[in-house]
Structure formats: structure tokens, C-alpha cells
Give the backbone structure.
Amino acid sequence: MYAFELHKAKSVADAAALIAKTGGKALAGGQSLVGAMKLRLAQPGALVDLSGIAELRGIRREGGAVIVGAMTRHAEVAASADVKAAIPALVALAEGIGDRQVRNMGTLGGAIAHADPAADWPAAVLGLGATVITSKGRHAADGFFKGLYETALAGDELVTAVSFPVPRKAAYAKFRNPASRFALVGVFVAQAGDGAVRVAVTGATATPFRCAPLEAALAKSFTADAAKAAKVSANGLSGDLHASPEYRAHLIPVLAARAVASL
Amino acid sequence: MSVTITLTVNGKSVTASVDPRTLLVEFLRNELSLTGTHVGCDTGQCGACTVHLDGRAVKSCTMLAAQANGAEVTTIEAVARDGELHPMQAAFRDCHALQCGFCTPGMVMAALDLVAANPSPDEKAVREGLDGNLCRCTGYHNIVKAVQQGAAAMRKGG
């Protein structure tokens, strides 16, 4: 790999200051970043390792929300009895990320800051209307994911935690790319405590989005049949060697129906 | 630039000065001569480089050596004890779960992590648990059998 500087941050404030000073990137679990650097798809001149910051780890229930620290690993979410009791969909989602080794290193904060277009966590953040808590404040899920690998985070702004409101019910279903284990398409469906329905889709475009036709269909009738009958346009969806826009458009209601049926 | 790291590798404390770009697998193989940990794809797909970091299976080609600072690393070299194969290794031999053997160290390390979490995995759990490890020879069938046999031997305390 090419040469870079490495700094270990002692606190969130220390990390933000080091990133501002060096113009470098935060290193969370590194499961995307280290691979990208090896291929020189990313070439930061400095990395700031967040793994020594204890305040970024852990899971707690606070009122009507589950708060997951940014450096909490996918495997820790998957094994959390608190998350399982409050939002089992997050356990199922975390269990399906990458593979066992990736889940043991990769983190929630790293995944959403990286904003891979086919990542699983963004679907949950958007589908539950979560709040992204950062070193500078808070971001609503709507508007957090801006584009391909692009978020509303400033260059020296760190995700510290995500607050997921506990829904009445929620589920995630994905069609997995068997080689990369990323979502060819993933759909997160949720019915909030007040009955409002949100449906978020990942893998289908450069950035996750809420699917209006599915939200309307499921608001009328929160059933698999209603989801399957919804029509999703292929306009603007991604096409690549794995799937055409039309195929992705077809998968969205199918996966939404599978998610609803799993409840 | 270099950074100083201190970690425990196979029970022994190691302190070294490394270039930040050093991957954990490079450190293990080139600095410590622990060449049982293999580099297969070098892109985090194949799992041949799997080691344990504080007891959890991780891919040592997709992490920096500095990320293991302060941690306990276990490689395939520390799995057998006193010249006796570990029951999981013995099961791989008995079940003919390897042909060329290149993926085997990673398979065994991933299998041990899997069995630590689920001491009695069914076939589906083994196949899902080894999702991050590729084998190009065996077709996996005998690897799955070996992991189940190894798990059974470990339950008996073998």
C-alpha cells in the first residue's frame, strides 16, 4: 500500500481536531476503507484511528429509541439482546452484512459515513427515520445520504451514534449479491409507533431513497399483497452487469412483500 | 512515519515499530515469520488470512497491523497443542476436508470462531458461518462435515 500517516485519537474532540489538521479520514473498522486504499480507490494522506475512543461504543435504550454507538461492530448489534427485544429487524440486518469476519470488524458509524450505495445500514437509518448524532450536532435521516459515497457530514464531522426510534414493527429483506454480499436491492419497511409507514430502498440507485408508491400502498394496508401490487418505476434506477434497472424495479416490491411477510 | 505497536501474538507479547501501511497479515508473515496465515485474494473476499483478534475471526489482509495494537492475536500456529492437532484440525484431516490446503488455516480459524458462538451448528449454520471463506478444491461438502465433527469432538472435550 502507499504511505500515509496514522494517528490514534483519544476522544471525539481529539479525532475531529486531528482530521481537521491533517485533512485525513477517520478509520473505524476499515472493512471498506482499507480495501479501497489497497486498490488506491481512496488515497487519504492520513488516517485517524477511532478504535481507542470508548465513548463511541455500546448500545443503550433511551426512552422510545435504541442508541447504537458509531464504533459498535455489526456482530455486536447482531448479538444484542436489547436490540433484539426493541427492533429485531436491526439484528436481522446486522446478521446479514458481509460475512462473519467483516461483521466482527465493521462498524455502524463507518458504514453510514462511507455511504456505499449497496450497504445495508443506510436502509435501516432511512427506513426507521433515525437520527444521526455527530460531533457537530444531529442529522435527520431524510437528507443525510446525499449521493454516491456522499453524506451531509462535513469533512471533519464524525458520526458518534445513531438513535433508532423503536417502531411498532419493522423488517428488512435483501437480495444479496452472492459474490460481494452487498444488497443488489434491499428494502426496509417500518410502521412507526404513530402508525406512519416508511419504506427505504438501498442498492437500487447511487443513494438510498424512500419509495413513495410502497409507502402509499402499505399505509392503506400493511400486508405483503399490498406491497407486491405496488408499481415501482425503473426510471433513474441503477443498471450494471448484475441487474438492469427494470430488474431492480421488479425486486423492490417483491422484497418489500417478503419483509412484510416475515413479520 | 512509523508507529509503535504492542500486541500479544499466540500468547507472547510483541512490541514493534511498523510503517502505518503494514497490514496485519504482512506483520505476521514477514516480521514474525508466522506463514501459516495465507494471503489468497488480498481483497477481503477469500478468508485465507483469517486470524482471531481478541477471540473474534477477522481478515488480517483487510486491517492494519496498528489496528491490532493492544489486542490478542491468535494464528493457526497456536491451534495445535503439544504436538497434538486440535480436534478441529483432526476433523479436517479425518474428513478429507482439504485438497491443496491453501484455504485450510483460514477455514479452521473461522470454524473455531463459529463453534465458539454456536457449539452445535447444523449444516446450514456451518455453511452460513463459513460464508467469508472460499475453497477452490473441495466443493465445501467435506469442510462442512469436518466442522460438525470437530464441533462434536470439542463438545466432548476432545
Chain B has two domains: 3-78, 87-155. Residues 141-155 of chain B form the longest helix (15 residues). The domain at 3-78 of chain B is CATH 3.10.20.30 (Ubiquitin-like (UB roll)). The interface with chain A takes residues 1, 3, 19-21, 23, 42-45, 47, 50, 53, 56-59, 62-64, 66-67, 69, 110, 113-114, 129-133 of chain B (CB under 8 Å).
